[in-house]
Write a structure and sequence with these properties.
By secondary structure, the protein is mainly β. It has one domain: SOS response associated peptidase-like (hypothetical protein yedk fold, Alpha-Beta Complex), CATH 3.90.1680.10. Helix content is 5%, strand content 39%. It has two helices and 14 strands. The protein has helices spanning 164-169, 174-178; strands at 5-7, 11-16, 19-24, 28-31, 36-43, 46-54, 67-69, 86-91, 93-97, 103-107, 114-125, 132-142, 155-156, 187-190. A five-stranded antiparallel beta sheet has the order 4-1-9-10-14, with no helix packed on it. Strand 5 and strand 6 (46-54) form a beta hairpin. 33% of the residues are buried.
Length: 216
């Protein structure tokens, strides 16, 4: 599962084939479902960046659907209509929790950015009788690798950088990309418990915290 992540750079550059996408955004340390997040997607053949709401509203739950298992998206009716609407979600860390609710941040050695795989869709709603388009996204997940295995049975699906272009543009390469995730190792560190509240934000949240065993 991926229910919280970070994008702490004020601006990052993502290379997709020969196209450079530059994200000029404020640093965010506690990105949560229902918030607007930066998404890179293929809009009619043009690679663009757009803010989308994290989570799909459904008829079977009061809570938005925020994740999709990469192994089953091709067979489930919830996702099959949107398999051609693939996207990338830039990040530089994601969080899981210990049994005592200590948040653990997983990141690359030098806080290098990476991209989750996702699916996007657009629906319509009518506030004040005016129809508007609502763009929303789900993040794909996969079985975990070490060290995530110590903390959870799922992790976000991270796309290999050389597959960004294929993931966004090439329907024939979708299954191959899903079978070849980015296996670059992650470092991890316990961070501040204030991160547990989605309303909290700021660089202090990712300062090293204490695991229960550190107190013994």
């Amino acid at each position: 599962m991926c229910a919280r992540y970070s994008l702490t750079k004020e601006g990052i550059s993502i290379l997709i084939g020969e196209i450079e996408i530059i994200l000029s955004i404020g640093a965010r340390y506690n990105i949560a479902p229902k918030q607007n997040i930066p998404v890179i997607f293929n809009n009619g053949g043009k690679i663009q960046e757009k803010e989308m709401s994290w989570g799909w509203n459904t008829n079977f739950s009061d809570q938005p659907l925020i994740n999709a298992k990469s192994e089953t998206i091709s067979s489930l009716p919830t996702f099959k209509p949107y398999l051609h609407q693939r996207c990338l979600i830039p990040a530089d860390g994601f969080y899981e929790w210990t049994k005592d609710k200590t948040p653990i941040r997983f990141m690359r050695r030098h806080d290098e950015p990476f991209c989750f795989a996702g699916l996007w869709r657009v629906t319509q709603r009518k506030p004040y009788d005016v129809e508007i388009d609502v763009f929303s996204v789900v993040i794909l997940t996969r079985p975990p690798v070490a060290p995530v295995t110590q903390f959870h049975n799922r992790m976000p699906f991270v796309v290999e950088p050389h597959n960004y272009d294929n993931w966004l543009k090439n329907d024939f390469a979708m299954e191959w990309t899903l079978k070849n995730p980015d296996e670059t190792p992650f470092d991890f560190v316990p961070v501040q418990r204030e991160l547990n509240n989605v309303r909290n934000e700021g660089a202090h949240l990712i300062k090293r915290g204490l695991l229960q065993g550190d107190l013994l």
